[in-house]
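Input record (one chain):
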Amino acid sequence: MTATGESRWMRAARWVGSVAVLAFAAASVDAADAPARKDAPPEKVSHSKLTGAWDRYPGPEADPRYTAAPRVPTPPLKPQYLAEWEARQKAAHEADLRGQPLYSGYTQCLPDGMPAMMMAMFPMEVLQTPGQITIIQEAYNQVRRIYLNEKQIPIDDAEPGFWGHSVGHWDGDTLVVDTVGIKENVRFRDVPHSDKMRIDERIHLLSKDIFEDQVTVTDPEYLTEPWNFSWRYVRKPGYKILEYVCEGNREYRDPQTGGTRLQLGAPGAAAPQPAPGASPAAPAKH
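The corresponding structure, as predicted from the sequence alone:
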């Protein structure tokens, strides 16, 4: 993978390190059964101030008035789907411990799609223009468009895509967004969903430099109830979104184990052939 400007590997290392620190801190709070600290009341900030570059909150310098968003809870899948999902999570965790991560969308150079792109794995940019809000995620050059004050199309007419079809309107200082039409193979945390899945968001500024996205996922076919979680972001003044291209990818699916393997040799060279009788590996996308 290549990028212009700051080293992509340095950025990835920063992300992995911050996730590890946050996970350890969250686990410590759970172990101590400490009460959650309440945030300060949101400031009165014009919703026109969303334009700019943002990163996952809290980052190196957290505002003492606002905590990090809670961890995303276990999805309320119906029993017949929950057991299968938990088994896949366990298998993925065990594969990671062995140093043999399973083949995934990232291995194929596929973007996150919705709602995962909003977790801000890398910085993102929000652009407010008449009739539209555009969100650009640096990872995989993802672009999401929210059309303002338009009626949502019927869910059965929505062309399936990575980011779906989003419409929104302002309810005071809160941007209310409705998204439909997400491809069924585009999964957040590997949670299955149907073409009836709907993603509702309430986006609002907590202060001039922090905003929150409250997400509600509903799916009558897979979920027993709405799946609620939130993300928070901190402003990055002066930051310019970098190019992120999944180029010269050397990873492929092991046809025997289903794990991720690294192809040796020049980029673009043919991947090793599967053993006799084994299913051929799906080619990586570039």
